[in-house]
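Why does residue order matter? Because the sequence determines the fold. Keep that principle in mind as you read this record.
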Amino acid sequence: MSMYPSVPPVSDECVTLVELYIKCRNLLNKDVMSLSDPLAAVYIFERGGWKEVGRTEKIVNSLNPEFSKPISIRYYFEEVQKLRICVYDIDNATASLSDDDFLGEIECTLGQIVSCSPFTKTLTRGGNGSITVSAEEITQSGEIVTLKFDAEGLDKKDFFGLSDPYIELFRQSDSTWQLVHRTEFLKNTLNPKWHPFDVKAQMLCKGDRKAKIRIDCYDWDSDGSHDFIGSCSTTLGEMEKATDQPIQWQLINPKKVAKKKNYKNSGILILRSIRVVKLASFLEFVFGGMQINFTVAVDFTGSNGNPRMPDSLHYMDPYRPNQYMQAIKAVGNVCQDYDSDKYFPALGFGAKIPPLMQVSHEFPLNFNMQNPFCAGIDGVLAAYQNCLPQIQLYGPTNASPIINHVAGFARAAQAEEPQKGAHAYFILLLLTDGVLTDMNDTKTAIVQASHLPMSLIIVGVGNADFTDMDTLDADNEVLKDPWGRAAVRDIVQFVPFREFVRNPGSEQSRESTSVELARHVLAEVPKQVEGYYQMRGIPANARRVIPPQPVPTAAPPPFPQNTQGTPASQGSQRRQAPSAPSF
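Structure:
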């Protein structure tokens, strides 16, 4: 089974996006000293094999988990979409599920789930209990709600301490309540202050400001027997009053109401603040004038092999392009459509370069230190080919300098957002043949870049073991640097090129490989763009009106001269040589 989630086919037809909410009952207990720690993974049958769609979060010590993280999937009425939902007891922190205990699975179709929601089926293949799946249609637009909750005077539930409280938010769905968010638990406090969190208004109340929302407060226990503290109900419309000042509700425990005549409440829940921001789609940002700034970085370390030899990954075969060239063209041909002037920085690392033949981990492929930009993707490919005979492949494989270099431009663009809004986003395509030597520095660079308008696409070229590279692609675990600082969002997509190679000798197959590679590595970019600007609270700019373009009387010079000498926005990145970070 492939460990790289598949991307549903991209098409022009109108597609419905649904979210699957999963809960289980009476699971097997695989742990000796505690209960199972279950996680559910969803797979879809495509092209003759099962491909992973997504995973829920892990629930600690529970045989009856209710997962709050939904799984998004495209729904096609005209297709039979076979699904397999597997449940695992997670025993370690690895991304692979093959080394975790299997708790059972179900097979069904997405049509069955949609038509019978909530859909319940007994676990098979040695499993025990059942899975219930509910489907909700979601829209790509709408609003995102940022909530900040505190509580005061909660009931004491722990014998040797206070309480370890957390809250759960539920949406009313017909005659049932659907869990939509669970906060972190805070240790040993009756006055918790939970971290702010985001939830889509569509998920919270289907956008209906009068729909009931239930909030339950619990005391977390390590054995999974969480103690109920109290509950309250509200609406999004009522919560929006916290825009001006905090509002509060009494947390009520019905059992205590029945037993105690003088019972008042089990604490006060306080909504300190709320922010509602309209969700803009990727296309709305593009229509508003946002530019994609595309940069290519190529690995020239010695492990690639002598470029003059046919077994080298940099070998120039007169009959077919090498994997580096195929990847540059596949990804670049997509990204260039979102860049108005189509001048792209092309950089290299890990080689000795002229004139002094010293090792560099950040040099322009055209050796123009003042202007590393190439005219179009064809210009990038030409610079790559011209560069090879002039350098000596060396090492080590250090990627962090180039990541930090592009992050410098993204940081400058971020500084201009108060005046220009969503105007510039940066994509770095990094091509490498092996595991990075500076992995800790690379993790640090990515964590810092996660705050910026930037995405990193890493394509592994050749047949090396890329297992360690999966730690950078934080689809299921939050990436942390060596000091424990976590990325604020996932900005990395890693894939090995060999996953897409079918028949390397066929031109038609190479074309298919390029399409599939681009589709896979770029699939997360729109979501990452949306996520960045939502995190910053920046809406899409007003849709720009493009005036008729005059017919040029002469071709512009390919590389305008640097007159300022300072990096600023995405425009200055193309037109000017950066003074810092420098080559």
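The chain has three domains: 16-138, 143-278, 282-541.
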